[in-house]
């Protein structure tokens, strides 16, 4: 079963902001049980929504826009059944929330009117499904793990701890004198009657078809990007002879790389004050696209170019290879020049961007956020920022987010739940709202907010900078991925400025960290096997 991450963002009537905040707080306080003594983000009535992992309801105050009500959800399966289950659980509350919102001007307006009319009984789920936003980038820390599987393996872990601590007649545990393989066999025999699913084969976390689809989408994206970057060369080549085209490409490439050398040094006060390396930039930023262009266009030429097929059909293999080499060389030169030119344009914009050294933070809201954080091992944050204007920034945020999303789906470490070297994130995603003029970010993570951002700054600042560098006021960046989030204090203050209080937040497994979920998974996988070798058992027993 697939994991789904989505959000719904609705504009709020300004005069209803305080009322909606109060309704969300009332929902948060209305719970049948709360192990934290009335302080933790927990609500037992949402256990009737069997698919949900995490759910948050937030209201962002209106500064540049009217206030924004956001439903963020992470669950198993398709959106339709989830929205129906959520309506069954808190339907009257959802209806009262929607009555605080503005009627949209698009095709969903009639649905909104039907749902919010006095004494209305119209279903809410179709409206929420129609207003659903698809994330531009998302990360799943325990990818492929359904909520039911996480809960079941969590219970299994507690049962293993109880069984290992068990003793006969008050004496030492009988497991102490056993070898690792014998411990595995005895523990499995003791737990199998209680957990019958241990006798079944574990379902694949990432099915083969899904993996193939992830790699195929990344390959198609790279091919389409290379083709788009070659269009300027296609236009020039149609007007110039080969010698003139090659001379022009060489001259433009030399001009652009020279400009980048002069413009690429770090700005004063950045976290990485090193001078721009021409050789390093060429190898990392230009040589790779050139190589991709050559490889991609060899494939395109081999499969789409009629003259080449004709040459192969007439056994003119040398002519076919010659045509493919010409095609690849032309496209590679075009891509190199286009990439260099775009980087000059980008760097010109970056050197003129405004950034906020001390963005204002409402002290009352800051106290409220701090009061609701750190009650359980998990935490939650939401952020909304303005997107910088301009054609290039619009293209970058769309293509950059798309490429980052596709890359996160195939990198071995992220498939295992890591983001950089971190495994503290359960679910996180970015999405664009307000006609793509604002960027929204939500994250469900372990440990404190401060340590969470410290991890990002130290271990994954390049990806974070790429995802957020188009936000207004973001710390100064270089070439989309350098500096930026490396400015630790400045980045944290900017992030706090963009956050709002998580009025309502629900976790289906509030006591489990992302690392503990993986530990439980490894223990369960070992117990599913009828026997382990001494070497396998010795490695497996480290998780007990």
The main sheet comes to: 5 strands, antiparallel
What ranges have pLDDT less than 50 throughout 5 or more consecutive residues? 35-43, 273-279
- Mean pLDDT score: 83
Helix content estimate: 40-55%
Q: How large is the share of residues in beta strands? A: 5-15%
Oligomer: single chain
Shape: globular
Run of helices and strands: EHEEHHHEEHHHHHHHHEHHEEHHEEHEHH
* Classification by helices and strands: alpha+beta
**Strand adjacency order, main sheet:** 4-1-3-2-11
The CA-CA distance between the termini, in Å, is 28 Å
Number of helices: 19
Rg from alpha-carbon coordinates:
28 Å
Count of extended strands: 11
Write a brief caption for the model.
This protein is of the alpha+beta class and 544 residues long.
Describe this structure in words.
The structure is a single chain. With 544 residues, the protein is an alpha+beta fold. Helix content is 53%, strand content 12%. It is built from 19 helices and eleven strands. It has helices at residues 17-29, 79-98, 109-116, 125-130, 147-165, 180-191, 208-239, 242-263, 278-304, 306-313, 317-350, 363-371, 391-410, 412-415, 449-459, 461-468, 488-498, 514-528, 534-540, and strands at residues 3-11, 52-60, 68-76, 132-133, 137-140, 378-386, 425-433, 438-446, 477-478, 482-483, 504-507. Strands 4-1-3-2-11 form a five-stranded antiparallel β-sheet. A hairpin with a 3-residue loop joins strand 9 (477-478) and strand 10. Helix 7 crosses helix 11 (317-350). The longest helix is centred in the middle third of the chain and has 34 residues, at 317-350. The model is unreliable at 35-43 and 273-279 (pLDDT under 50).
């Amino acid at each position: 079963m697939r994991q789904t991450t989505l959000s719904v963002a609705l504009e709020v009537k300004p005069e209803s902001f305080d009322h909606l905040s109060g309704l969300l707080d009332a929902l948060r306080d209305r719970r049948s049980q709360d192990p934290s003594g009335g302080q933790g983000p927990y609500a037992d009535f949402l256990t009737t929504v069997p698919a949900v992992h995490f759910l948050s309801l937030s209201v962002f105050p209106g500064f540049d826009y009217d206030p924004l009500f956001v439903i963020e959800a992470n669950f198993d399966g398709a959106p339709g059944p989830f929205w129906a289950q959520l309506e069954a659980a808190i339907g009257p509350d959802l209806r009262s929330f929607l009555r605080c919102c503005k009627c949209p001007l698009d095709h969903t307006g009639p649905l909104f009117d039907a749902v919010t009319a006095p004494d209305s009984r119209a279903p809410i789920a179709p409206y929420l499904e129609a207003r659903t936003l698809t994330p531009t980038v998302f990360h799943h820390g325990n990818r492929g793990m359904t909520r039911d599987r996480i809960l079941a393996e969590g219970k299994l872990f507690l049962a293993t701890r109880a069984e290992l601590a068990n003793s006969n007649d008050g004496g030492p545990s009988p497991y102490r004198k056993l070898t690792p393989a014998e411990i595995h066999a005895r523990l499995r025999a003791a737990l199998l009657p209680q957990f019958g699913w241990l006798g079944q084969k574990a379902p694949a976390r990432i099915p083969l078809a899904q993996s193939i689809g992830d790699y195929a989408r990344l390959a198609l994206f790279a091919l389409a990007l290379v083709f788009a970057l070659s269009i300027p060369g296609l236009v020039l080549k149609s007007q110039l002879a080969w010698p003139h085209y090659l001379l022009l490409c060489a001259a433009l490439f030399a001009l652009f790389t020279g400009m980048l050398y002069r413009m690429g040094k770090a700005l004063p006060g950045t976290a990485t004050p090193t001078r721009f390396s021409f050789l390093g930039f060429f190898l990392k930023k230009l040589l790779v696209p050139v190589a991709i262009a050559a490889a991609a266009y060899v494939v395109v030429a081999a499969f789409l170019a009629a003259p080449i097929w004709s040459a192969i059909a007439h056994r003119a293999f040398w002519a076919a290879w010659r045509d493919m080499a010409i095609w690849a060389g032309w496209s590679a030169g075009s891509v190199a020049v286009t990439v260099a030119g775009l980087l000059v344009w980008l760097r010109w914009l970056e050197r003129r961007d405004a950034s906020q050294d001390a963005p204002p933070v409402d002290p009352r809201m800051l106290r409220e956020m701090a009061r609701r954080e750190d009650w359980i091992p998990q935490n939650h944050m939401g952020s909304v920022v303005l997107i910088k204007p301009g054609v290039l920034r619009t293209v970058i945020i769309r293509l950059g987010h798309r490429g980052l999303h596709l890359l996160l789906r195939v990198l071995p470490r992220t498939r295992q739940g890591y983001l950089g070297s971190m495994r503290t994130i359960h679910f996180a995603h970015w999405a664009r709202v307000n006609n793509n003029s604002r960027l929204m970010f939500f994250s469900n993570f372990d440990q404190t907010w401060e340590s969470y951002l410290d991890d990002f700054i130290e271990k994954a600042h390049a990806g974070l900078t790429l995802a957020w560098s188009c936000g207004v006021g973001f710390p100064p960046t270089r070439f989309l991925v350098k500096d930026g989030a490396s400015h630790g204090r400045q980045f944290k203050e900017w992030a706090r400025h963009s956050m709002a209080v998580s009025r309502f937040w629900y976790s289906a497994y509030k006591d489990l960290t992302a690392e503990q979920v993986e530990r439980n998974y490894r223990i369960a996988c070992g117990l599913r096997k009828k026997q382990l070798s001494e070497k396998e058992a010795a490695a497996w027993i480290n998780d007990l």
